[in-house]
Amino acid sequence: MPLNILIIGAGCAGPVFAHLLQKAEPKHTITVIERSPSLRTGGQQLDFKENGIPIARGMGILDTLKAACVHETGMQLVDQKGRSLMQFGVNSSAKQGLNLTNEYEIMRGDMVKVFYDSSIAERRKIEASGEKEGGLTYKFDTTVTHLDQSGKGATVTFSNGEKAHYDLVVAADGQNSRTRRMVFGDEVNAKCFMNMGVHAAYFDIPRLESEDSNARIMFAPGSRMIMTRTGDRPITQVYLFLMKNKERHERMKAVHRQPLEKQKEAWAEIFENTGWDSKRFIEGMRTTDDFYAHEVGQVHMPQLYNGRVVLLGDAGYCPSPFTGMGTTLSLVGSYILAGELAKHGNDVDGALQAYHDLMQEPLEKYQKLSTGGTESNFYPASQLGITIANSVLWILSSLKIDKMILWVGGLLPEKKDAYVLPVYPELSLDYGEKV
Ligand SMILES: Cc1cc2nc3c(=O)[nH]c(=O)nc-3n(C[C@H](O)[C@H](O)[C@H](O)COP(=O)(O)OP(=O)(O)OC[C@H]3O[C@@H](n4cnc5c(N)ncnc54)[C@H](O)[C@@H]3O)c2cc1C
């Protein structure tokens, strides 16, 4: 039976799921709501890899994503004078986490646009084939104010006062999902966020002519880290990281709730005079429109659904940028949820339980952090610590033990046993080659 489905959030997961749902059943009626007045195309470079690749291929968007890729030469570790201490190369996308730079590196905005466009193109294809039932509608500037699950399905009240009933509500509204809090309650919502004591800010500034296409990382005293990425883009992406520091952690938690200008002030104060090009980065941050900051952490939910509301992507299992698996996991989640719904037909409840069960293996693999968490990760606090860190890393780099470096740096997880996707003929995907 075709379903009436509401997807909350048009980020990465929402549009991918809308696309896959239509592949399985063109008669579904799908509504995607987004809090922003238009598609949120902010954010920096994301990558997708491993099982994200056959899914994108099956959806027919791999070539479009490839064309949108940022071409980055590799990564350099620099000192506080901006001098290169070592260089790493580009990694093959088939493996997880041997290096920072992967084959499929795309600006978040470009990726979101590809996902959104592909979901609409899928609908056009369905309509062109003569199908009259079902549909796909995006509604911007819209949120949910109330959700009632007392009957079968969910009755939703929207921010414009309208009400509608859905067979299924999919919360794809990101790491700080309001839907998750609404449906699972404050206590579960608070408990599910595994804070890592790390805060991050991402923004764009104009690129200098002299900048090459390497990513650069610099550790600074006080457990601070700056990273830049330029690739072949006309902008310089700047990433500021604040590592473990209990006092500062409490302050930053409050900062994230403040207006953007106040947030920028706090980041500027902490990163001013850090060395390298910090003055330019901070000046650029003050005027950029594309600023995104958050508390880095993971979402671990005991159950991925409650009644007919199901969590998808970061809302259900944000793995944190430190795993490099956020987008891949949201593609895998969308694929399994769409696949199980297709497979279970009328049994939506059975499909949700199967989705929960089948997600446990990729979650266990993709959410795993290097060295079992950030406790033992290596973010030097003092100047002496940085000198030692840089020297150790230099020696390791000379020995070409890249994996070791990233394991020590806690930047990416250790290599895992490969996770094999279930195959869903019901999704009519053209994988091209074996999954
Ligand atoms: C603006 C932005 C910039 C980002 N930049 C980076 C980055 O530089 N690096 C990085 O690693 N990750 C970044 N992320 C997170 C990254 O996109 C996700 O980790 C990942 O791709 C999983 O996607 P998702 O769809 O689950 O969540 P997201 O991509 O976060 O998408 C969630 C969507 O839901 C919308 N939304 C939120 N609340 C509501 C609501 N109540 N009602 C309706 N819609 C709602 C949001 O506006 C957003 O469009 C960014 C996210 C956003 C929103």
UniProtKB/TrEMBL annotation:
Annotated keywords: FAD, Flavoprotein, Oxidoreductase, Signal
Q: Does the keyword ATP-binding apply?
A: no
| UniProt keyword Protein transport present | no
Q: Output the Gene3D superfamilies linked to this UniProt entry.
A: FAD/NAD(P)-binding domain
Domain named FAD-binding is located at 4-356
The record's section on InterPro entries has:
FAD-bd (IPR002938), FAD/NAD-bd_sf (IPR036188), FAD_aromatic-hydroxylase (IPR051704)
Q: Which Pfam families match?
A: FAD_binding_3
For this UniProt entry, the molecular function terms from Gene Ontology, in alphabetical order, are: FAD binding; oxidoreductase activity
Question: Which segment of the chain is annotated as a signal peptide?
Answer: 1-18
The protein's name in its UniProt record:
FAD/NAD(P)-binding domain-containing protein
Native organism is: Ophiobolus disseminans
